[in-house]
């Protein structure tokens, strides 16, 4: 399973390089070759059984899952970014050099190559592998580039999601393929199908733990930022008596010839932009408990297994994750609910004041006319 995952990671990384300019492909390939050459001394010291045992440790598997998940999230952000931003040099550098999953996959393949090439010089193997990586990565990027008729963003996102699914399944269940393929021949067809479905759902649910935790951390940080910006808006409103958005649309309204249709249009635009600002708070209010509940339910299963087997330490660790996910999710929701209520009241007051100012301008213009 890990061999398939490493190969797929290299292919997705090559396709990632195909989406940037050729000079950045060459620079990244050369730096990758230097990194592989530098890691040769570590690769030589690891036999295949030692590597297999190392990969089976919980910490390493969690690191792999986090790297693959972050890589997939960054690719989702890249695919949703405007084309002008994608073509900038800074964005392309960030796109190439934030490949979290490709260097570990190449290191694993280097170790496998050293193990297979028994009796040869490790120095020669390292030189050849570094040269192949420096030359083949740009060529492979040219080979896997999608046709012009296929949107590269959608094509790449599909491959990245496939990589993320396989990586999370492996990191959470190394024997998931064996579990899904094994069945008792004495069982009925219905029992075999239900057993297959239950194991597949169990594997998918447990594979979602790492992405759920990463999203919880991301939205927790975003909630803190939202709380800070809301406080700044509160201080600005306290000193000026109104918000910046109200001042912006009031100046637009005063700079145009007053009319009923134009005033209604400006007020509607103000309400739409205010609703856009409130949407983040509403999103945090709903997503916080959902993500917290997902983390709670996923971590509850291994905690119950630890209780049944007498693994008190494992059960205690999983219960920490259970309570932490719930608390963080509720904290995110609380910030979202607080800021949503506060901003909704602010913008409702500003909308009524803006409507009053527009009617006043219209009446003053009609009296002059």
In a few lines, what is going on in this structure?
The chain is built from 16 helices and no strands.
Distance between the termini: 81 Å
Summarize the helix and strand pattern as letters.
HHHHHHHHHHHHHHHH
Main beta-sheet annotation:
none
Instruction: Report the structural category.
Output: mainly alpha
- Look at the structure and give the mean pLDDT: 75
Strand-residue fraction? under 5%
Number of helices: 16
Shape: extended
Helix content range: over 70%
DSSP, total strands = 0
**Radius of gyration from the alpha-carbon trace, in angstroms:** 28 Å
Low-confidence blocks of residues: 174-181
Give your account of this protein's structure.
The protein is an all-alpha fold. Helices cover 85% and strands 0% of the residues. The protein has helices at residues 2-17, 22-38, 40-44, 48-55, 58-80, 83-86, 89-97, 102-116, 122-143, 152-172, 176-181, 189-207, 209-240, 244-254, 260-309, 312-368. Helix 2 packs antiparallel against helix 9 (122-143) and helix 14 runs antiparallel to helix 15 (260-309). The longest helix is centred in the C-terminal third of the chain and has 57 residues, at 312-368. The chain is extended and about 100 Å long. The protein starts with a helix and ends with a helix. Mean pLDDT is 75; it is low at 174-181.
